From TrEMBL:
It comes from the Bacteria. Residues 1-22 form the signal peptide. It holds the Pfam family DUF2490. This is DUF2490 domain-containing protein. Keywords: Signal.
Length: 236
């Protein structure tokens, strides 16, 4: 009887810890990512990438992550782009708000190469990215390296509406090879010739957890080359 009681107690403790961890990491919540992306031409072969993402454990509350990224794009041709850039990431790794929480900070350098092709009406994009990550956890620092590959498929429905899908694999270049996998699907709306909105869903899978994320993305790509041209009408 004593052994049975101990076994039951142990099982209850394991269940409580498991349930508690599931609640604390927010795996059962529908979170949200609100995003802005820009690719602004500054010369015939160069453009500037701008990006801001606000990520939440819940759709409108419980901050998870702020990501700011920029880079310089070199357009080799209309279907090939090379990019080098920098990102800053501030992350709250706890699901609930705690008074003694310490957010991690990350400075990231990245290099990427994009290839595009078209098959019938399907627009494919292959993105290859390397990242050097410099992490600060408050009481400790770490340097990590990571590779990412994303295949994206866009299907125009009309001149205004389109569907967008992608799958992206993250590979750690140190211990624990598998980092995460992101599966995404969205409905896109072309607002104008240089702007669009996507509303969709992201399934973000890690080794021990899966997160569901509602996403709204704004894409705005104005041509800035006019700002860099000398105005001949100006006087000295």
């Amino acid at each position: 009887m004593n052994r049975i009681s101990k076994s039951v107690t142990t099982l209850l403790v394991v269940l409580i810890v498991t349930i508690g961890n599931a609640q604390n990491n927010g795996e059962d919540e529908m979170g949200a990512w609100y995003m802005y992306f820009g690719a602004n031409k500054i010369a015939e072969r160069f453009s500037i990438h701008t990006e801001a993402q606000f990520r939440y454990y819940k759709t409108a509350s419980n901050f998870n992550q702020l990501l700011l990224r920029t880079g310089l794009n070199y357009h080799i041709n209309p279907n090939a782009i090379a990019t080098g850039g920098y990102a800053f990431i501030s992350t709250d790794g706890t699901f609930e708000e705690f008074p003694d929480e310490v957010n991690s900070k990350e400075h990231r350098i990245f290099q990427q190469f994009i290839l595009k092709n078209k098959v019938w009406e399907f627009l494919f994009e292959h993105r290859y990215r390397l990242e050097q990550r410099f992490l600060d956890f408050g009481d400790a620092t770490d340097t990590q390296h990571r590779a990412r590959y994303r295949i994206q498929l866009t299907l125009p429905l009309t001149d205004t509406f389109f569907l967008n899908f992608y799958d992206e694999l993250f590979i750690n270049l140190q211990d624990d090879l598998f980092g995460q996998n992101r599966l995404y699907g969205a409905l896109g709306i072309n607002i104008s010739g240089n702007s669009s909105v996507q509303v969709g869903y992201l399934r973000n899978q890690f080794t021990n957890a899966v997160y569901d994320r509602f996403q709204i993305g704004l894409f705005y790509n104005p041509d800035l080359r006019g700002l860099f041209k000398k105005n001949n009408g100006d006087s000295d």
